[in-house]
Amino acid sequence: MKRREFLIGAGGAAAAAALPGALRAQAATVKIGTILSITGPGAFLGDHMKRGMELAIEEINAKGGVDGKKIEWVFYDAETQSSRGVTATRRLVEQDKVDIIVGGGNASGIALAMVPITERAGMPFISTEGSMQIVNPVAQRKWTFKSTIDDDQILEVAADFWEKRGIKSVCLLADSSGFGASAKEQLEKVAPKRGLKVLYESFNPGDTDLTPQLTRIKNSDAKAILCWTITPSGVVFLKQAKQLGLGDRAIMHSYGFVDDRYMKLAEGAAEGTFLMSVKFPVGADLPDSDPVKARIADLTKRYETRFKQAPNQFVAQTYDAINLAALALKGSGGDKEKIRAAIEGIKNYPGVGGTFSFAADKHSGLSKADGCVITWKDNRWRLAA
Amino acid sequence: MAEPDPSRGARRSYAALGAVWALLLLFPLAAPNNFVLNLGISWFISLALAGSLNLLMGYAGQISLSHAAFYGLGAYASGVLSAKFGVSPWLGLCAAIALTAAAAFLIGWPSLKLRGHYLAMATLGFNVIMSVMFVELRGLTGGPNGLVGVPSLSLFGWEIGADIRFYLFAWVVVGLMMLLILNLLHSRMGRALRALSTSELAAKANGIDVHAVKLGVFVLSAVMAGIAGFLYVHLNNFASPENFDFVASVMLLVVVALGGTGTYWGPFLGALLHVVLPEALRAFSDFEILVYGISLVLVLLFFPAGLSGAVARLGRLVGRGGGR
User: Phi, psi (5° rounding) for residue A29?
Assistant: First the structure.
């Protein structure tokens, strides 16, 4: 007996930390676990995403919670490191024994590191990160879902945009990160279907000079240049494209660059840039017939009241994910298989980021209809005509 | 005999290691859940890393800034072979050992011939190169998003998942490593190491092949880091480049220094702090990193000989008090 006590002492703070968790478990709550990065390079995204979840949980609890039980939220910071994300995931699964995990460290790399653990444990997981790999191949991702739009869907939106303008030859200027690589991979599939001729150029995240790539593009017949990065190199792209006289081509960015601070950094050069996006940034421009419009206005108002700050699309991403989780938890009684099946069964859920539909072979909730092309004009986002 | 028998100290160390390892076998009984058990596994891996680095840094007096690169090389070697080519992880282990040994030999051979901080500089460069390779060899390593789909280990048809089975497996593997280090320290090689860390010239004059000893220890410590990487990748079924970058190497130096450089038990305590402290500080949420940093600074300020030095000092104080 004594030895056992000693060992518990040796386990130290870790074991002590387990105690309140065990006590809490007796209360009548449902538990949602979240991992985001609110420190490290991903901190800027993480802050907004965390607030989106906070708001969603406060609202649900104010309305009486799920099946009359309050949501208990267990939040861990992944510090933008996948190894911290992995330990935090184990902690949520094994110690906190949450009913579902929402949020994967706001970096695709972290979410991908979490998936083997959640899959093995049979833990439902709604990722709020981008990479398609997180939920593909679906056969190996029984328990994993995602609340963001897939690259192939957003590229279809781009193809429509080009078709409307009679553009047949384009250039994808993607960075060499996983984010850029995924876009190239998907465009290689989409382009032949849509009869597009594509020139592929690449650069390293953070590069400060893109003159060689842009010169090659200038000498090509590409009528649109789609840049795919989340790093400040995208600002360099905007400025140098203007300088090199590429203004006659359509200058475009991916949803990873939908950030007004980047646009302001590029000064005048950002004017008229087209960006692939969800509809959130241009809620006010949407036709009244679009059901998302009212939801965006509504969330914006509530978010501004609560946090004295304007929301962005990342807020919508996590706000929706928590609501989807709450929907799936309803009536499940904590049965993981029921929760999982409930997510698969969600059809046409009216979210703020779009309309979510899942299926057994489709674990990514959004689709082409939820994407759009927006443009930066007079220091604000507008829907591109 | 007028001189104290040197083997008595050795016997005591073996007995202590045996006792600690036997106690560790009881940890799974005390662990309230799988998460705490996994912290135990993380501790084994950290100990393998810190112990092997301590052998090089604390005993041979050579600073390596690429311990994390060898750790990563071991992880990716076995991980890539098993995830992309379906090779058995046990063959992957052989590849991890061979690759880390070869890499360490190639870097160590020229740079260990020179005196001063050439090894530190060469290893720093090596770590940066390896980080670039892990990211850029996208077809093999999965690039910046990391390597996914690494299978778990299995032995005689038994899957060694991230639970008690992996704990026992790590218990055996890391136990053998720590035993090997202890053996080494009490052998002729260990005495040669200590001699050359005080004065290379004096060691040479005593007939020690300084270059060969340094190179041998460097390769050995790299291989141990590679094996730790093998454990890591099959435990988590995943590897990501940022775990093995230059910053991670520096962190390992800190872990060794925290525990107590050049003491056998230092890495045990350093690894314990490295694994438990961040988890214990989760409660501080936003201030976690701040508290973590401050506690590290405090330890180094007040216990310059590391935690094991502090424990030894405490032991001496208590011993003296008891003697009176």
Answer: -135, 165
> Would B307 be classed as within a structural domain?
no
> What residues of B are in contact with residue A123 (Cβ under 8 Å)?
none
On whether residue B155 sits in a domain, the answer given is yes
B20 in contact with A at a CB cutoff of 8 Å?
no
Query: Does any CB of chain A come closer than 8 Å to the CB of residue B279?
Result: yes
- What integer best gives the mean pLDDT of chain B? 86
Kindly state whether residue B237 falls inside one of the protein's structural domains: yes
Residues B294 and B289: their CA atoms lie apart, in Å, by: 9
pLDDT of amino acid A23:
45
Angstrom distance (rounded) from CA A291 to CA A294: 6
B304 inside domain: no
Is the Cβ of B39 closer than 8 Å to some Cβ of chain A? yes
Provide the shortest C-alpha distance from residue A160 to chain B (in Å): 29
Three-state SS for B309?
helix
Q: Could you tell me whether strands A100-104 and A125-127 are parallel, antiparallel, or unpaired per DSSP bridges?
A: parallel
CB contact under 8 A, A10 and B30: yes
- Which residue has 């241009």 as its token pair? A282
> How close are the terminal C-alpha atoms of chain A, in Å?
75
In the block, residue with structure tokens 């020690």? B208
- Pick the closest to residue B34 from A154, A14, A324 (CA basis): A14
Q: Which of A170, A153, A188, A162 is nearest to A227 (CA)?
A: A170
Q: What's the rounded Cα separation, in Å, for the pair A196 and A171?
A: 10
Closest C-alpha to A100, from A134, A130, A66, A132: A66
Q: How many domains does chain B have?
A: 1
Distance, in Å, from the CA atom of A146 to the CA atom of A157, rounded to the nearest integer, reads: 19
Nearest CA distance, B213 vs chain A (angstrom): 35
- Interface touch A81/B243, C-beta < 8 Å: yes
- List chain A residues with CB under 8 Å of B289: 39, 79
**Distance between CA atoms of residues B42 and A66, nearest Å:** 36
Q: Do A90 and B138 touch (CB under 8 A)?
A: no
Q: Quote the CA–CA distance of A371 and A85 in Å, as a whole number.
A: 29
Q: Which of B35, B39, B242, B276 to mutate to test the interface with A (most CBs of A within 10 A)?
A: B35
**Side chain identity at residue B277, one-letter code:** L
Q: Where does the pLDDT of residue B285 fall: very low under 50, low under 70, confident under 90, or very high at 90 and above? A: low
Find, among B176, B208, B299, B282, the residue nearest to A90 by Cα. B282
Q: pLDDT (tens digit, 9 = 90+) per residue, B169-214?
A: 999 999 999 999 999 988 888 888 888 888 888 888 888 888 888 8
The minimal CB distance from B145 to the residues A81, A93, A133 is found for: A133
Q: What is the pLDDT of residues B109-131, one digit of tens each?
A: 998 887 767 888 889 999 999 99
How many A/B residue pairs have CB atoms within 8 Å?
A: 127
B135 neighbors B144 (Cβ within 8 angstroms): yes
- CB nearest to A113's CB, from B146, B272, B282: B146
Tokens matching residue A27: 């209360």
Residue numbers of the domain that contains B228: 20-245
List the Cα angle B52/B300/B260 in 5-degree steps.
Answer: 30
**Is the Cβ pair A177, B143 closer than 8 Å?**
yes
| Residues of chain A scoring pLDDT < 50 | 1-26
| CB-nearest partner of B240 from A79, A82, A177 | A82
- Residue A162 vs residues A8, A172, A224: alpha-carbon distances, Å: 64, 13, 8
**pLDDT attached to residue A24:** 44
pLDDT grade for B6, boundaries at 50, 70 and 90: low
**Mean pLDDT of all residues in chain A?**
88
